From TrEMBL:
<keyword id="KW-0413">Isomerase</keyword>
<keyword id="KW-0630">Potassium</keyword>
<keyword id="KW-0521">NADP</keyword>
<keyword id="KW-0547">Nucleotide-binding</keyword>
<dbReference type="GO" id="GO:0000166">
    <property type="term" value="F:nucleotide binding"/>
</dbReference>
<feature type="domain" description="YjeF N-terminal">
    <location>
        <begin position="13"/>
        <end position="212"/>
    </location>
</feature>
<feature type="binding site">
    <location>
        <position position="62"/>
    </location>
    <ligand>
        <name>K(+)</name>
    </ligand>
</feature>
<keyword id="KW-0520">NAD</keyword>
<dbReference type="InterPro" id="IPR036652">
    <property type="entry name" value="YjeF_N_dom_sf"/>
</dbReference>
<dbReference type="GO" id="GO:0046872">
    <property type="term" value="F:metal ion binding"/>
</dbReference>
<keyword id="KW-0479">Metal-binding</keyword>
<dbReference type="GO" id="GO:0052856">
    <property type="term" value="F:NAD(P)HX epimerase activity"/>
</dbReference>
<feature type="binding site">
    <location>
        <begin position="61"/>
        <end position="65"/>
    </location>
    <ligand>
        <name>(6S)-NADPHX</name>
    </ligand>
</feature>
<comment type="similarity">
    <text>Belongs to the NnrE/AIBP family.</text>
</comment>
<feature type="binding site">
    <location>
        <position position="160"/>
    </location>
    <ligand>
        <name>K(+)</name>
    </ligand>
</feature>
<comment type="function">
    <text>Catalyzes the epimerization of the S- and R-forms of NAD(P)HX, a damaged form of NAD(P)H that is a result of enzymatic or heat-dependent hydration. This is a prerequisite for the S-specific NAD(P)H-hydrate dehydratase to allow the repair of both epimers of NAD(P)HX.</text>
</comment>
<protein>
    <recommendedName>
        <fullName>NAD(P)H-hydrate epimerase</fullName>
        <ecNumber>5.1.99.6</ecNumber>
    </recommendedName>
</protein>
Length: 212
């Protein structure tokens, strides 16, 4: 039995997530909660004065992390706006669960990018390790709006638009001040280009995933 502690690719991280969920038996939503708690802690520590926080979410589990984080930050007394830019028809199961919880907490979930201009802090939760093609159309416009906004940006897991394995920009990518990545650092974030887009990288929530 080996304690895994290394750089991983997207495929390896997905494998470990599946192993943790299916073999160890830790539910996916528990992993999501732990990941989001880690991002919340970094935000409360690094940006204690940020009151207006805009969280930009895609339709997958990276967006689910963003929604979960929105709830945690609202409970911590922050004014949170969720900007949903993903395709509603493609929302993951966990994303849908988190959106339902956000409804209960009356957290605004909008599609307008307007709040980016008045935000004290922007959270990028559009794409994580699931990005699999060039960023185009409204996603590209959204990422450009994040990059031109005045507020600092914290990326969830991987800056959206950065290839997890190579650090290459897949069309356009979020330029983050910090990136909180989960369990293991990702190969792409250690490349010169990846470092420039990720900013300070914090590796959080190492579950101590074991494999025989
Ligand atoms: N249980 C889990 O699987 C966990 C996942 N976590 C989070 O989930 C992320 C991975 O989630 P997913 O596998 O759902 O993937 P992502 O949420 O990274 O993205 C997948 C979605 O984006 C779409 N997409 C990919 N590239 C696109 C492009 N260029 N333009 C438009 N749409 C595009 C896909 O079709 C899919 O709908 C991780 O990075 C991490 O943030 C964490 O919550 C920890 C637990
Ligand atoms: K992201």
């Amino acid at each position: 039995m080996t304690l895994m502690s290394k750089l991983v690719t997207a495929a390896e991280m997905k494998h470990y997530d599946q192993f943790t969920i299916q073999t160890i038996g830790i539910p996916s939503l528990v992993l999501m909660e732990r990941a989001s708690l880690a991002v919340r802690d970094v935000i409360l520590h690094d940006y204690p004065d940020a009151q207006q926080i805009s969280i930009v979410t895609g339709s997958g589990n990276n967006g689910g992390d963003g929604l979960c984080l929105g709830r945690l930050l609202q409970i911590a007394g922050k004014h949170v706006t969720i900007i949903e830019v993903g395709n509603p028809a493609h929302r993951s199961e966990e994303h849908l669960a988190q959106a339902h919880i956000c409804d209960y907490y009356h957290i605004p979930q909008v599609t307008s990018l307007a709040s980016l201009a008045t935000a004290d802090l922007i959270v990028d939760a559009i794409f994580g390790i699931g990005i699999d093609r060039e960023v185009k159309a409204s996603y590209a416009t959204t990422i450009e709006a994040i990059n031109t906004a005045a507020a600092p940006v914290i990326a969830v897991d991987v800056p959206s638009g950065i290839n997890t394995d190579t650090g290459a920009v897949m069309g356009v990518a979020v330029k983050a001040d910090s990136t909180v990545t989960f369990a293991f650092n990702k190969v792409g974030l250690t490349t010169k280009n990846g470092q420039q887009y990720a900013g300070r990288v914090i590796v959080a929530d190492d579950m101590g995933t074991y494999e025989n």
